[in-house]
Amino acid sequence: MTPKDTLGRPMRDLRISVTDRCNFRCVYCMPKEVFGRDFRFLDRGEILSFEEIARLAAIFVRLGIEKIRITGGEPLIRRDIEELVAQLARVPGLNDLTLTTNGSLLTRAKAQALRDAGLRRITISLDSLDDEVFRRMNDVKFPVSVVLDAIECAIAVGLTPVKVDTVVRRGMNEKGIVDLAARFRGTGVIPRFIEYMDVGNSNGWKMDDVVPAREVIATLGTQWPIVPVDANYYGEVAERWRYEDGAGEVGIISSVTRPFCSACTRARLSAEGKLYACLFASQGEDLRALLRGGASDEAIAARLGTVWQARDDRYSEIRTSNTPSGAKVEMSHIGG
């Protein structure tokens, strides 16, 4: 039976981080000042193997997980990631398997290998179409053109619908919202605009840097009439808006100004095997110790159920501009 937490929320979605490393240093996620040359990333032996991940995934699915998203860090850094995709795709009862990437390593061959292994959809991060702005935001001078090519590769092999995620930060890229929407109108690609969030302790978040969802919607609405659309499923985090002329849709993710904690069904598994019940959590439950300590599937399932049933997280609902950050897990560690 699917466990429910203290607020009656079922466990339906699992995000699995396969690495804490990334080849970008996005200023809102892994700023160079913190994640520099001397930063200690996880050693290989600390990270869950593909077999360990697949075993845990199967246990999660038996408890009610319907969708798994592979994340990082940057998941395509993990060698032979398509092998993990193949193992997860074989888990009985899993309805949806997807992956989020910055697109830097998504060649046509890699996209095809992921599709052949069983990946169904993909989300690609792209914060601006303006090359100068994008290079400044990823902070490793990576060009827009390669990410646009990655999007085309994903479309070509059938990893669709492709979603393109844009974190909108005041004073950095909010002027490019219309350009991004226009680029993908009528293509089947779904751009999603995400409010800049106070995840982790490194990004120097301030409420003044947030571009509220209502402003994004108003900006888009001045260019094209858009109307709200019902969610695809319970717990979907993106508000859906479609163009009245039938040219597709956009998504708005408003964790700051219109929090969706009351319907959050997400669990997060970090690369070293810790279970986090909230994107803004400070502590995780060590599942790697259970795996490597010889615990049975039944014992692990019981522990997962206990952790979820005790869950009362609703950080975004109680957040204010003065909420102390505390020691929160970094977004790069659990994949956003």
Task: Give the tags.
336 residues, twelve-stranded mixed β-sheet, 12 strands, single chain, TIM Barrel, alpha/beta, globular
Quick summary of this structure?
The chain has 336 residues and is an alpha/beta fold. Helices cover 29% and strands 17% of the residues. The chain has one domain: Alpha-Beta Barrel (TIM Barrel), CATH 3.20.20.
Layout of helices and strands:
Layout lengths: L12 E5 L32 H13 L4 E5 L9 H9 L6 E6 L6 H10 L3 E5 L5 H8 L5 H14 L5 E6 L8 H8 L5 E6 L17 H9 L4 E4 L9 E5 L5 E5 L12 E4 L4 E3 L8 E2 H6 L4 H13 L5 H4 L12 H4 L2
Parallel strand pairs: 1-2, 1-10, 2-3, 3-4, 4-5, 5-6, 6-9
Antiparallel strand pairs: 7-8, 8-9, 10-11, 11-12
Descriptive notes:
The chain has 11 helices and 12 strands. The protein is an alpha/beta fold and 336 residues long. It has a single domain (13-334), classed as Aldolase class I (TIM Barrel), CATH 3.20.20. The chain has a 12-stranded mixed sheet with strand order 7-8-9-6-5-4-3-2-1-10-11-12. Helix 1 (50-62) packs parallel to helix 2 (81-89), helix 2 packs parallel to helix 3 and helix 3 (108-117) runs parallel beside helix 5 (144-157). The protein is globular. The model has no long low-confidence stretch (mean pLDDT 92).
